[in-house]
Backbone:
């Protein structure tokens, strides 16, 4: 795959580095010029003044050292004097190889499991994290950031999509659940241990109260339904008999657990529960009623407004510095940190978990890190890369030229002196 050339971002103090580099180049080149001048003068007058041989030999060796180190330093960044000599312009020509070697070096020496494990154990991440979390101020900070994260998430989500998801989820779950058998199961729990008799007792008390409140209505209804010629006394007797019958029945059912009406009520409830669970007709009616309810505008409006209510509540509590949400998060974080500090065994386990997690991630992605370094270096523009590297380290490399000039001169002086000593001998 063809990789586009990337221009490196400007150095923070690029112009200052360039000025300092040029200054050091002038110093190193100036020393070469001084050595050359001294060599020429000493060589001219050496025949008249033999002692100038020491100076000539020193200057000559200094020239050689200066030129050799100039060649070495220049060959790192470009062709010396533009001549394409083999093994020169090393950085621009071997940039890709350098990137690959750098990636492998980082992968094998910085991202190796033994190195990472040693650093993690030395850092004792769990202890530091526990100490940080145990600080109440930090717990508040976590609560603040958690609230900010929730707020950001809620605001990023599109209302229409969330409402659609909620509606589909709720409606889908309801539609896949048969209502009648579910109601039958609920009623089975409700009627266990004859708890449904309490419902009958409540119904009896309600009927008794309604009967007392509507006695006159019953009397008037009896009078209305009997012939006109029926004596009033007869109507009254009919009313009294009906009223006494109702009152007697209500009292008997209320005080007699074994009353036949209660038995028939038990049978009716059991039959109804069984029909809910197994009757195709009841199941179909339940499903039809369910679809009718789900299709009602009020239900759809509720599901659509549910997310709006949730979102408004989340934003309100997240924005309030004194909200219960922030307080609970901060308190939980602080308690967790304190518990972690008090439990050495848990700390050790936490450190182990951190180490395993980090090593797993490193093992999975260490090759990608090496590839990233390699491909990134490959994408760098050679000339731009060479220029910026030279700006970063070129000034220090000029000291090699300076030292080469001085050391070369001293070596030349030493060699000349030794040669004279052995020649005289």
Residues:
């Amino acid at each position: 795959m063809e990789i586009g050339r990337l221009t490196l971002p400007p150095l923070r103090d690029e112009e200052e580095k360039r000025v300092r580099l040029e200054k050091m180049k002038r110093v190193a080149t100036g020393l070469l010029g001084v050595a050359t001048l001294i060599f020429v003068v000493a060589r001219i007058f050496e025949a008249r003044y033999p002692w100038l041989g020491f100076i000539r030999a020193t200057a000559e060796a200094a020239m050689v050292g200066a030129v050799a180190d100039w060649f070495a330093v220049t060959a790192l960044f470009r062709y010396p004097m533009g001549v394409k000599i083999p093994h020169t312009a090393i950085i621009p020509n071997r940039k890709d190889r350098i990137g690959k070697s750098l990636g492998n070096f980082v992968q094998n020496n910085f991202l190796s499991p033994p190195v990472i494990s040693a650093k993690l154990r030395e850092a004792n991440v769990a202890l530091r994290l526990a100490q940080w979390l145990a600080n109440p101020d930090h717990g508040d900070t976590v609560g603040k950031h958690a609230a900010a994260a929730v707020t950001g998430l809620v605001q990023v989500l599109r209302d229409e999509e969330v409402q659609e998801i909620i509606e589909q989820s709720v409606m889908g779950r309801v539609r896949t659940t048969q209502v009648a058998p579910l109601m039958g199961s609920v009623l089975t729990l409700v009627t266990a241990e004859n708890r449904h008799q309490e419902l009958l007792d409540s119904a009896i008390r309600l009927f008794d109260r309604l009967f007392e409140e509507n006695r006159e209505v019953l009397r008037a209804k009896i009078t209305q339904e009997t012939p006109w010629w029926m004596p009033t006394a007869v109507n009254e007797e009919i009313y009294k008999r009906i009223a006494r019958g109702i009152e007697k029945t209500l009292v008997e059912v209320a005080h007699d657990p074994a009353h036949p009406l209660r038995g028939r009520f038990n049978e009716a409830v059991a039959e109804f529960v069984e029909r809910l669970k197994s009757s195709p007709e009841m199941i179909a009616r339940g499903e039809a009623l369910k679809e009718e309810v789900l299709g009602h505008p009020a239900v759809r409006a509720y599901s659509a407004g549910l997310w709006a209510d949730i979102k408004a509540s989340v934003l309100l509590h997240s924005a309030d510095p004194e909200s219960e949400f922030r307080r609970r998060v901060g308190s939980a974080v602080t308690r967790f940190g304190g518990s972690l500090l008090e439990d050495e065994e848990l700390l050790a386990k936490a450190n182990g978990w951190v180490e395993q997690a980090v090593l797993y991630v490193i093992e999975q992605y260490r090759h990608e890190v090496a590839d990233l370094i390699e491909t990134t270096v490959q994408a760098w523009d050679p000339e731009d890369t060479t220029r910026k590297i030279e700006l970063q380290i070129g000034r220090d490399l000029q000291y090699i030229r300076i030292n080469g000039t001085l050391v070369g001169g001293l070596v030349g002086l030493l060699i000349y002196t030794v040669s004279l000593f052995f020649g005289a001998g």
About this structure: Residues 220 and 239 are 9 Å apart (CA to CA).
